[in-house]
């Protein structure tokens, strides 16, 4: 689905706010998380920084992961918030990738939609 800019901004902002609230609720003891200026930063207590931000010109959400590197995600219609964002390489979902990596890094199960 091709998004116009206002729709992209709304959907990306909803996703970043959802990730902030959900990750903070589940893993607050194991990380520091902040959302400012459309950039979600997750600093793991054990080391490593995740950066998730919206890229309006490309209509994508980008992820920089200390575990798996750089990822770009396109929007697809579907349920959930983070689950709608699908990787341009390999087709995986943003929600699955973050759940898996943050669960492993903190040794605490994390479920994202």
Question: In words, what does this structure look like?
Answer:
- The protein is an alpha+beta fold and 113 residues long.
- The chain has a single domain (5-106), classed as 2-Layer Sandwich (Metal Transport, Frataxin, Chain A), CATH 3.30.920.
- It is 32% helix and 31% strand.
- The chain has helices at 5-27, 94-106; strands at residues 31-36, 39-44, 49-55, 60-65, 69-75, 85-87.
- The protein has a 6-stranded antiparallel β-sheet, with helices on one face.
- A hairpin with a 2-residue loop joins strand 1 (31-36) and strand 2 (39-44).
- The protein is globular and about 40 Å long.
Class derived from helix and strand content:
alpha+beta
Instruction: Give the amount of beta strand, in percent.
Output: 25-35%
Tally of helical segments:
2
Computed CA radius of gyration, to the nearest angstrom: 13 Å
SSE order and pairing:
Layout: H1 5-27, E1 31-36, E2 39-44, E3 49-55, E4 60-65, E5 69-75, E6 85-87, H2 94-106
Antiparallel strand pairs: 1-2, 2-3, 3-4, 4-5, 5-6
Question: What's the short story on this structure?
Answer:
With 113 residues, the chain is α+β, with helices and mostly antiparallel strands. It has one domain (5-106): Frataxin/CyaY (Metal Transport, Frataxin, Chain A, 2-Layer Sandwich).
């Amino acid at each position: 689905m091709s998004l116009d800019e206002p729709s992209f901004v709304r959907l990306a902002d909803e996703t970043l706010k959802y990730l902030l609230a959900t990750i903070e609720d589940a893993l607050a003891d194991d990380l520091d998380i902040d959302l400012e200026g459309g950039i979600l930063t997750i600093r793991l207590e054990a080391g490593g920084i995740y950066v998730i931000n919206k890229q309006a010109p490309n209509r994508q959400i980008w992820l920089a992961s200390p575990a798996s590197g750089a990822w770009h995600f396109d929007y697809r219609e579907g349920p959930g918030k983070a689950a709608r964002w699908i990787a341009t390489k390999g087709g995986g979902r943003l929600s699955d990738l973050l759940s898996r990596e943050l669960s492993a890094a903190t040794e605490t199960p994390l479920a994202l939609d």
